[in-house]
Every structure is written in structure tokens, then in C-alpha cells.
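Q: what does this look like with glutathione bound?
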Amino acid sequence: MAAKARSALDEMNEGEFKRKESTFRKWIGKDLPAEAGRYHLYISYGCPWACRCLATLAMKGLEDAVGVSVVHPTWQKTKPDDYNDEHYGWTFASPDDPPFKSPNGHGSFPPIDCVPDNVNGARFIRDLYEMSNDTSGKFTVPVLWDKQTKSIVNNESADIVRMFNEAFNEHAKNPEVDIYPEHLRKDIDAVNEWIYPNINNGVYRCGFATQQKPYEEAFEQLFAALDRCEETLGKQRYLTGNTLTEADVRLFQTLIRFDVVYVAYFKCNRNFIHEMPNLRNYVRELYSIPGIARCVNIYHIKTHYHTSHPKLNYYAIVPEGPAEWWTEPHDRDQKFPSAK
Ligand SMILES: N[C@@H](CCC(=O)N[C@@H](CS)C(=O)NCC(=O)O)C(=O)O
């Protein structure tokens, strides 16, 4: 019998959330050629991991080389005809489809800005994993798909960001953009090393904890790391100095979701990001970059988290606030006039 299909809410170890390693790790530029039109990226605008890939794609100007599909923000039953299969996950929709309900039947969430799978005609992200011989999951986004071999190339956002940054320059509108430059690689890797567990994944460790102690530990580590970012960004424009890099693109995805979702939904409530002046202005600056702003969809962000996990939000009520402070002007040019 096939193993039970998993999702993030099953990845618990004594009350602590432990994220599973990604399973598909082929590399375009090494294992496969970087051909235009051959690969397709499947994302959710709700997902911070998927959005760092989309932001890199947009910043490099790869829209004509790599196609993109966008799932509905609300998880649905992925084997609707199989009573015994209890998996809920990412589902495709066309903008003219009727609204979805939450997994336990609450609310009404229209498929605004969804882009169906015009490559495989799949109904669920799970279908793509099963076509690639993974039947037990988890069935995560992002997924980078190879149309030629009809299988998943890679489902690890950290890899996909780097492939988009370096492998497709010949097809990129902005090949000069380099968010992982050779001379900063060591520094970027060092920053990612503490930001990933404590902040990017740290908010999930708070939100998905099922016991008090692991939640408190994650909470403490999260805000200690945010304080460290606040201090660093008071002294320099970006995380590794004067140049915007992958480390910033990765941190931004968590910061833009923080006041909207994580403060309340994941119980990350020591303070809002907009109460930390350097982080507030840093988010505003990154949001003013068109390739980054284009990947921020607040409807999908709010709707995904609040409507997909009935255990955490039974009635799928989506909070109204906060006001969109990140669209306001920033002070980073005046504060760091020599950085670009
Ligand atoms: N290691 C993956 C993690 C991706 C991930 O966890 N994605 C979440 C959405 S934010 C997902 O698709 N979860 C599906 C599930 O839990 O069933 C990456 O960074 O690419």
C-alpha cells in the first residue's frame, strides 16, 4: 500500500515542527540544459519559498523563458473521489471557476489571480509529484517542471533561486542582475544560515508548534534574530553590505507576511515589523523594486494561511488588517547614500 500522503501539519516531533528536506534536486546548467520554453514554475503567491523563486525570475526578466502557474490559495481535498485519502493540498483554478470553500466547508474564496496548469492540465500539485513517481509527499510548492522529461526537476526553492540567477542568462532580459555574486557568497551563505532556521522557518516553528516549550523556544530565537537584523540594517543598507542579494530576497518574503499573518496567526506577537524602524524602511525599499513588488499578492497571502488549516482557524475567517504600510516611501537612500 502507498504511504499516507503528508502535509506540513504532519511534520511534528514532540510538539516541534520539523520541515522535511526537498526530494527533487536536479540542477539546470549541470544535469539539464538551460533551454528557453522547456521549464515551468508552479507557485503559490501565499508561499514564501515559492515567492522567492518568482521574485528572482521577475528580477532577472525570465518571464518569456520560464512559464508560471499559480495555484488557488485555499487547500482542497486532493483525491476528491477517495473517501479514505485525507490529504488536502494545492489546487489549480481558473479565474472563472466558482469560489472555493475551506477544507471543512467554511467561507467562500474566489480564484482571483490564479493561473491554471496549461502544461499538464493537472488539477492538483499532488498530480505533478505522482507523475514524477512520488506518491507520499509532501506535495509542496515551488515545483520546477521539465516539459521534455515530464517530471519534476527541483522542488527546493533555495536551488531554484540560484538556478534562475545563474543558468538562464542567455534568455534573461536583465542578465546583469546577480543576487548571488561571487565575492559575497560566503557572507550570503553565513546570513542564510541563521535567518533560515530562526526567521524564515522560525515563524512556522512558532505557528505549527503543538506544545508550549518548542513554541517559546522558537519565539525567542525568532525575535532575537529579528533584533539582529534590525541592528545590522541600522548600520548598512542590505544584509551583506551595500548590495542587494539573495539573502535580502529571502528575508523579505517573511517580513512582508509578518504583520499580515504571522503576528496573530502564528503567535509571533512580541511586536509588528512596522514597529522596527530599520526593518520597516528596508521592507518599503524592497517593495519599491518592481520585480519584487509584482510577486506580493496580499489576497493570496492572507487567504492561504487563514483558510487552509482548519485545525488552526476552524471558521476560516480572514483578518481585515493591517493598513498597507509597506507601500509608503522609505528612507534608505538618505540613510545610505553611497549604497545602490
Ligand atoms: N523546502 C521547500 C519548502 C516548501 C514548502 O514547505 N512549501 C509549502 C508552502 S509554504 C507547501 O507547499 N506545503 C504543502 C504542504 O504542507 O502540504 C522549499 O523551500 O522549496
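The first strand starts at residue 12 and ends at 13. The chain has two domains: 8-171, 182-335.
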